[in-house]
């Protein structure tokens, strides 16, 4: 019996075997880094989000001395070159946060250069593609970003991938007892069919939400407000962070 589960990420080659089109990319890039403070950092344990002129900066303390942060901004034509040089990543980040509060500028200036990473191709799976395709062909299927590339906008790509794994394992175990199936092929096909049916609407809605939020990223103030509301509502629903999130709109 041969089963292929394509977990090969946003540029999946297995996706084309099951009939999905290539993933598409947003015009936004993401920069991530870590800053170490010799003494206590000023952020306590809260998750902060800052928004200014289409630049979003989020930060989450790891412990009393280390802070993880991320920034999203519009992609520029030089970003693929910038992404290869961590010093340039830092320079472009300092440039992007002009006008942010001093403690944010300090955090970026003091970030660990080795920790910096720029993702210039943030990709998504077109939701309508998922509706028209079964994403399972014989004993070939997909899981994780290969199925539902989601970029970071909902912060749920990782957990959605784990959901895939749990549902797939359950479908396989439920079908493995199929009688009169010496090769196991019938059982595997039934399991993958069941998996595709169970995941279809879940990954469709996640991909739709990602598409809408990502597309709004560089649009009008009203849409940015709506996008922030969707993200915060989603995060609150998922992680019960009501009392932990501070969101700051900068003029
Ligand atoms: C900037 C950014 C921030 C994010 N932040 C969050 C977050 O806060 N929370 C969250 O839950 N998610 C987040 N995500 C999404 C999360 O990273 C992904 O959803 C998750 O990594 C998907 O896991 P995966 O195993 O499906 O794919 P990947 O992690 O992409 O792994 C795919 C693997 O397959 C390998 N591969 C590819 N092609 C082949 C091949 N032909 N042969 C062999 N191997 C191959 C690749 O090398 C890679 O190791 C973020 C994404 C981005 C871009």
Automatic annotation (TrEMBL):
Superkingdom in the source lineage: Eukaryota
Entry-linked InterPro entries: FAD-bd, FAD/NAD-bd_sf, MOase
Keyword Oxidoreductase: yes
Ranges of residues in domain FAD-binding: 4-202
Coiled coil: none
Keyword line: Monooxygenase, Oxidoreductase
Keyword check for Cell cycle: no
MF GO annotations: FAD binding; monooxygenase activity
Gene3D superfamilies assigned: FAD/NAD(P)-binding domain
PANTHER family: FAD/NAD(P)-BINDING OXIDOREDUCTASE FAMILY PROTEIN, OXIDOREDUCTASE YETM ISOFORM X1
Similarity comment: family membership: Belongs to the 3-hydroxybenzoate 6-hydroxylase family.
Name by which UniProt lists this protein: FAD-binding domain-containing protein
Organism per entry: Gossypium darwinii (Darwin's cotton)
């Amino acid at each position: 019996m041969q089963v292929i589960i394509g977990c090969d990420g946003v540029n999946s080659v297995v996706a084309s075997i099951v009939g999905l089109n290539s993933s598409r990319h947003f015009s936004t890039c993401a920069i991530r880094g870590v800053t170490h403070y010799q003494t206590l950092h000023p952020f306590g344990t809260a998750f902060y989000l800052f928004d200014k002129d289409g630049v979003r900066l989020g930060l989450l303390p790891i412990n009393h001395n280390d802070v993880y942060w991320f920034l999203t901004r519009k992609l520029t034509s030089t970003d693929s070159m910038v992404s290869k040089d961590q010093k340039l990543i830092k320079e472009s980040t300092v440039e992007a946060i002009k006008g942010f509060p001093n403690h944010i500028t300090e955090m970026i200036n003091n970030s660990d250069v080795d920790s910096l990473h720029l993702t210039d191709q943030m990709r998504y799976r077109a939701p309508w593609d998922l509706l028209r395709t079964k994403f399972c062909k014989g004993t070939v299927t997909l899981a994780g970003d290969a199925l539902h590339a989601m970029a970071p906008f909902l912060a749920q790509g990782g957990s959605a991938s784990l959901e895939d794994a749990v549902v797939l394992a359950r479908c396989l175990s439920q079908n493995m007892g199929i009688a009169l199936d010496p090769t196991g092929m019938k059982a595997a096909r039934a399991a993958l069919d069941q998996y595709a049916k169970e995941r279809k609407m879940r990954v469709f809605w996640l991909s739709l939400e990602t598409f809408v939020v990502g597309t709004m990223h560089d649009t009008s103030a009203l849409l940015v407000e709506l996008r922030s509301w969707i993200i915060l509502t989603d995060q609150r629903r998922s992680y019960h962070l009501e009392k932990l999130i501070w969101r700051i709109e900068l003029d």
